[in-house]
Specification:
226 residues, alpha/beta, Rossmann fold, six-stranded parallel beta sheet, four-stranded antiparallel beta sheet
Length: 226
């Protein structure tokens, strides 16, 4: 049975960010999920565990093998969500946080957010997303993406992992060499936990800047999983 690709977005984003990649994947069955840690109302945002529940709910609705892609913060979500009996054949960490048990996103960056985080109360906004997220992305796509960014819950960055999917499910890490959000040296350190490491000459959002190239990396993984 052919595998399904489940795409899990990163912080501040939504499933809208995958539209160009989905188009480039052609006949691959693709599902997406919107994480409750992202939104416009700071008081209504969920945390990491709510996001993991949303991914588990999405997996429960898919028959057959699944390849799960986590982008950026989404890597922490899929690590928490996926268990050995989840029906997931492979994990892909796309310039993502491939963390260990007890780690949190905030802890992994030294306990203090980077200067482009704008934290107020229970929510975090992002400064200069054009430079941080979208270097290498066409100006009109960047403008559209920036307009759709939401707030990110502080809880999603603070809650520690209680489950480590990559210990029981095979994984691939995709290092994005022009990333301005997660330094390459940090990506390479986390990628040591993956069974396979691939590389792209792209910024933090290759699904917008290089959708065909990213689809070309993902398709063989999906084919092997089916």
């Amino acid at each position: 049975m052919p595998a399904t690709l489940l795409l899990v977005h990163g912080a501040w984003h939504g499933s809208w960010c995958w539209e160009r990649l989905t188009g480039a994947l052609g006949g691959v069955a693709v599902r997406t999920v919107d994480l409750p840690s992202v939104g416009t109302d700071p008081a209504a945002l969920g945390g990491l565990y709510d996001d993991a529940d949303a991914v588990r709910a999405a997996l429960a609705g898919i028959e057959g093998p699944v390849v799960v892609v986590g982008h950026s913060y989404g890597g922490a979500v899929v690590t928490e969500a996926v268990r050995a009996d989840s029906g997931v054949a492979h994990l892909v960490y796309l310039c993502a946080f491939q963390l260990d048990e007890g780690d949190s996103l905030l802890g992994s960056v030294g306990g203090e957010g980077p200067p482009w985080w704008e934290a107020t109360g229970p929510a975090i906004a992002v400064r200069s997303p054009e430079q941080v997220f979208y270097n290498g992305v066409a100006p009109e796509l960047t403008e559209s993406a920036v307009a759709r960014l939401g707030l990110q819950s502080r809880a999603s960055a603070e809650q520690p992992l209680t489950n480590v999917a990559w210990r029981s499910v095979p994984s691939t890490y995709v290092v994005c060499e022009q990333d301005q959000a997660i330094p390459v040296v940090a990506q390479e350190a986390m990628s040591a936990r993956a069974g396979e490491v691939l590389r792209m000459d792209a910024g933090h959002s290759p699904f917008l800047s290089h959708p065909a190239e990213l689809a070309g990396l993902l398709r063989p993984i999906v084919d092997r999983a089916g």
